[in-house]
Design a protein that fits this description.
This is Uracil phosphoribosyltransferase. The chain is an alpha/beta fold. 32% of the residues lie in helices and 29% in strands. The protein contains 6 helices and 13 strands. The structure holds uracil.
Length: 216
């Protein structure tokens, strides 16, 4: 079977609600931050399906023994927020994955080349086999940043099939780049928008996610 990039847009009223709040230009920074936190929570919840490893065991209830399914603690789970804006989704993601290790990765746009330049890389040299990695990045626009992070992760031994990306708004240029190199990859997002403007902003989008999260 040929693999294809899969992009899930969960039809969930809470995800739709918080996306609407985030899109509204009248939303103040404090509420925008809450909206992104909530989107981080619900998109992580959705992304955890068929991704978080489980194991079966037996527990004793007050009445008898029965089979129970738990998250397998032997298999590492990591979250990689792409700074700055990815920090906005982190709090909600951590609420769902409280035992995950957090590896920060900071990228800033070089204003001359317009390419993302790494200013912080807390990734381990090598990830343990089977590690599940969740990348948090609210906007997948041109795809420059996400491709840079995917490259770093796969070089460090992460299997792209075990990576999930959560994003609030994604656009076709980023999806095309990801699909060309990582056909087995799975993305969870609140929406797929149509286009980018000539500055690389997603339209209709929600503006500069980092500025709106941090009130700058
Ligand atoms: N990054 C943002 O914050 N907003 C966009 O629209 C595109 C990239």
């Amino acid at each position: 079977m040929t693999q294809q990039l899969r992009v899930y847009v969960p039809p969930h009223p809470l995800i739709q609600h918080w996306l609407g709040v985030a899109r509204d230009v009248a939303t103040p920074s404090v509420l925008f931050r809450s909206a992104i936190t909530e989107l981080g929570r619900w998109l992580t919840y959705e992304a955890a399906r068929e991704w978080l490893p489980t194991q079966e065991t037996t527990v004793q209830t007050p009445l008898t023994t029965c089979v129970a399914t738990f998250i397998n603690p032997q298999i590492p789970v990591a979250v990689v927020p792409i700074l700055r804006a990815g920090l906005g989704l982190l709090e909600g993601a951590q609420g769902v994955l409280p035992l995950a290790s957090i590896y920060h990765f900071g990228l800033a746009r070089n204003e001359e080349t317009l390419e993302p330049t790494c200013y912080l890389n807390k990734l381990p040299e090598k990830f343990a086999p089977e590690t599940r990695v969740l990348i948090t990045e609210p906007m997948l626009a041109t795809g420059g940043s996400i491709m840079a992070v995917m490259d770093e992760l796969t070089q460090r031994g992460v299997d792209p099939a075990l990576i999930r990306i959560i994003s609030v708004v994604v656009a076709p240029p980023a999806l095309k780049k990801l699909a060309a190199v990582y056909p087995g990859l799975i993305v969870y997002t609140a929406t797929i928008d149509e286009t980018l403007d000539d500055r690389g902003y997603i339209v209709p989008g929600l503006g500069d996610a980092g500025d709106r999260i941090f009130g700058t």
